[in-house]
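Render this sequence as a predicted structure.
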Amino acid sequence: MKAFLDHVGIAVQDVPAALAFYRDTLGLEVEEAEEVASQHVRARFIPVGDSALELLEATSEQSAVARFVAKRGPGLHHVTLRVEDIHAALAHLKARGVRLVDDSPRQGAEGALVAFIHPSAAHGVLVELTQRPSSRPTLEVKSLAFGDLQLTTLHDGPFRLDGGAMFGVVPKALWGRKVPTDDRNRIQMAMRPLLVEADWGRMIIDCGAGDKMDRKSRDIYALDPDHGLGEALTAAGLSAESIDFALATHLHFDHFGAATVRRDGTLVPRFPNARYIIRGAEWEDATHPNERNRASYLQEDFVPLQPFGVIDFFDGDLTIKPGIRVERSGGHTPQHQIVYVQSGGRTAVFPSDIIPTTAHLQDAWVTGYDLFPLDSLAFKKRLIRDAIDREYLVFFEHDPHVAAGYIRERDGKRFVEAVL
């Protein structure tokens, strides 16, 4: 049975005094309190390295924490070990005659499943086992009316990238508990193209990685060939032939790899009836890669489009179609752009890799893939401020669970009110 130290539980009686020590004196970041009804406690996590401290405040006299404090006073309450499969772990322990408090898991803080091992079996220490919520992405196809437009969030399946690369210079101690990693330090992500339907046609904004990668690359990025763009289009009642326009935010493989497909050994446009709309300067960068960006610009994803005469190049910030406006952000790539969708007095924004997931709401949380991170930072600060103040609906292209939502701010802390 493989287990990792997840956190240490500390029973507290005087919460303001505890916060004064851990937050104010030690300077640690204390997360928002969470009520755990099943255990009659209020929990506050404090990330420390790859694990955490958990401050536990009883909310009822029925709480085990209340009884603990009454008998022993505040102090160390339990040690929590994280396991991949809590049911298998409990079966393993039962088979060895280990005395348990819980024969089966129950709901704990942060959506985890938990179960306790009796202190008599662990030499006087109360040990908690925890299994974090599944990181398997939610790949539902969902639509909403947006003024005169219809917006549908599609998907090209799940994939994984290195967690450190996705958060750049931000230490894992800060993001690790928000976004768990696998045994290869990769975080779970998704690829979520946006479909816009209007009286002028159907436009797909980005289109995912596609299915051309070899087995080694599919393993590196944990691509799932059984759940791709074709599945999503079918769920939306459409096909590749239904797409009239394909707009690229930039030409990295996880954003525009599905623009081409291999048929009878030849690479052809995936959307046979579509015009492919690409910023000219981004094409220039993508077709002349260097050592720093070559792994992200895969020539087979876009170069085969050119002989078919299906590309419409453009430069500058402009309105592509009524209600569809692009603006260069730079940063991630020199020509990376975001897309504004506007109709009926409302604005949605597709920020692509400037805000790839809901875990990237902090200004400085910029990916290590960004070629010009200070440009990303400057643009992102302005964009998030506008999104909060003007109530933009934000589409998160790489978030594994939230496709779109509103960025809110309360007491200086940002969060997403999910819509799709």
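Summary. The chain has a mean pLDDT of 94. The domain at 142-418 is CATH 3.60.15.10 (Metallo-beta-lactamase; Chain A).
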